[in-house]
Design brief:
Blueprint lengths: L4 E4 L4 H17 L3 E7 L14 H20 L5 E7 L2 H10 L3 E10 L3 E3 L2 H9 L4 E5 L25 E4 L7 H14 L3 E7 L3 H4 L9 H22 L5 E7 L2 H9 L4 E7 L12 H9 L4 E6 L1
Helix pairs in contact: 3-4, 8-9
Length: 300
């Protein structure tokens, strides 16, 4: 059975943007699209005028109506819909296990506040075992492409770069592979950002044994080049830009997101630990402030 691209729907503008993004991604990957709405029954403390069945009937319409719109827009795409019962984060995590990836929506709060990641999306990203893409409300197909000024049709426009945030101390093949595959599907350049900082004592002139800042920068660049060598050989058709940068990685990734079609980051799981699953501070910051869609790829 072919694994689909899945989308979690709640009827919000953000989730509808995620559905449209998921449809385009399914076409790029030659996969079916699965639209899922999770219904969780809640006891009512009053009798609504529209009757007790109204919320459920509305929730059943959400995937059907979204699928109808997408079929008009993408007639060659195979689309299925599901109305499932249960706590949305648990339902979506189960759906993701059977999917190539999961897309969810997030809403804009403002330029300074960033984007609002609802409790369902946050809980899902924290526990899901498959790549999850957060799509901003208002995201369209035009946002994936470099702006054209010569009147070319959309289909002829180049894709914006895919940006990969890479921590060399925890470099994971699953995260790197996802970024390279995604860039390859788009014939887009891949920009790999590795943030690093010299040890604090270097600032005070106590790090002569480590060499000059220039020497340390050269070592970081060489380590990044080494980590990507086999992937560049495997995906030889991709234009890869390697960027070891000094400073907070989240800041660099958020800035890079302004010109990116997708930003890819990793989330370390705790499968070998008894502690609760969590999202690291860099991943958390990028999720909330990056203007481009963000793919969070779990890894050990």
């Amino acid at each position: 059975m072919t694994s689909p691209v899945a989308v979690g729907l709640d009827g919000s503008p953000a989730s509808l943007a995620a559905a449209d993004w998921g449809a385009r991604e399914a076409l790029r990957r030659n996969l079916p699209l699965r639209l899922v709405h999770a219904w969780e029954w809640q006891p009512l403390t009053y009798a609504p005028l529209a009757g007790t069945d109204a919320p459920r009937l509305w929730s059943e319409r959400v995937p059907r109506e979204t699928a109808a719109e997408l079929r008009e827009r993408y007639p060659d795409l195979e689309i299925t819909t599901d109305h499932l019962t249960g706590a949305p984060p648990e339902v979506l995590c189960d759906v993701a296990k059977e999917s190539e990836l999961l897309a969810l929506g997030s809403a804009r709060l403002g330029r300074l506040a960033g984007f609002f990641i609802g409790s369902v999306a946050m809980s899902t990203v924290t526990h899901v075992e498959r790549p999850t893409v957060l799509v901003r409300a208002g995201t369209t197909a035009v946002d994936e492409h470099v702006s054209a000024t010569d009147g070319r049709p959309l289909s002829a426009m180049r894709y914006r770069p895919v940006v990969l945030g890479l921590d060399l101390s925890r470099a994971c093949g699953d995260v790197i592979r996802f970024a390279f595959e995604t860039a390859s599907l788009r014939a887009a350049p891949l920009r790999v950002i590795h943030g690093w900082n010299p040890p604090a004592f270097v600032t005070y002139g106590l790090g002569s044994a480590l060499g000059s800042p220039t020497d340390m920068a050269a070592r970081e660049a060489d380590a990044l080049r080494t980590a990507l060598r086999r992937w560049r050989e495997k995906y030889s058709g991709i234009d890869v830009i390697e960027q070891p940068v000094v400073g907070q990685p989240a800041h660099h990734l958020v800035d890079a997101g302004a010109d990116a079609g997708l930003v890819v980051i990793g989330r370390r799981t705790n499968r070998l630990s008894a502690g609760p699953s969590r999202i690291g501070h860099i991943t958390h910051a990028v999720m909330h402030h990056c203007p481009a869609p963000v793919a969070v790829v779990p890894h050990d």
